[in-house]
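re: ur question from yesterday

yeah so i grabbed the chain u mentioned. its 65 aa long if i counted rite. heres the sequnce exactly as i have it in my notes:
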Amino acid sequence: MAEFYQTIKAAPMWDESRAMMLPGEIEYRTEQDRLKTGIPLQESLLAELRALGSELGVASTLTAL
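ran it thru and got these structure tokens back, copy pasting raw so excuse formatting
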């Protein structure tokens, strides 16, 4: 499988500014980024979640990134 991966990655691209991506690679990179930096939320959603937490008596540890 590693040999297949290396063969695919080494194949020339028609657009040199782009990289060859294998199925699941984008999702894996996104997952790793989210684990490091958190999940980005719009400020309006963050405010709604804080308000709901307050209403239910749940302390909020949510912060804007």
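noticed a couple things. Residues 24 and 30 are 10 Å apart (CA to CA). also The two ends are 38 Å apart (CA to CA).
anyway ttyl
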